[in-house]
Amino acid sequence: NVARITPCRRKIHFPTGIFWVITGIMVQYANGRRACAGEFRMDCVGESIWVDHTSSLELGFAVGKDNAAGVWLAKVDTTRSDDEPVIWKSVPWEGTLQWWLDEEGGCEIYHLDGAGHLSSVQEDGIERD
User: Terminus-to-terminus CA distance in the chain, angstroms?
Assistant: First the structure.
């Protein structure tokens, strides 16, 4: 039972500019336990998001204008916002989130469901230019 999500945001220098990238999240459960995915540092803590279990975890990916920038996570929320220039992907609350961050600020995020199926969150509809 996820109670809230806290993102870790920091500036990453890409060849095409400097962008705010979400490098990881801290998940707090209803029983008080905490777990992190990706890179979570206390010096880059963002605003916490309280979870409404009628929704899903929404990840907003930004896509660079050229091959030098690639794809990075720009937004984490429980609802999608149409005014954000990102590609939204939904992740269910059940299962396990696996998150790898590379040194350039890009990430690979996977979801492992209860049946043991591992799927890439970015797999459909997000490609590097």
Answer: 37
Q: Are 99 and 51 in contact (CB under 8 A)?
A: no
Name the maximum alpha-carbon separation found in the chain. 44
Stretch 83-99: mean pLDDT: 88
pLDDT bracket for residue 129 (50, 70, 90): very low
Q: Structural domain boundaries of the chain?
A: 2-120
**Residues 6 or more apart whose Cβ sits within 8 Å of residue 49:** 4, 5, 6, 7, 76, 77, 78
Q: For 10-33, b where at least 16 C-beta lie within 10 A, e where not — what string?
A: eebebeeeeeebbbbbbbbeeeee
CB-side neighbour CA atoms (13 Å) of 102: 10
